[in-house]
Amino acid sequence: MGEQEKYKNLLKKVIKETEDHKIKSSEEMVRALVNELGNSSMPSAAGGKSQSFAE
Hints:
mainly alpha, 2 helices
């Protein structure tokens, strides 16, 4: 999977979490994105394991 595809899937996940009311504010959304990018295996991230927003 390419880098753009990973980012696209990440954004879809954030949209779904917002629609499901698991993310209730823009601050929560930003924190979730930063957390996901920091814990993901995306090439531009620091590395590590991927983690769900709803954990």
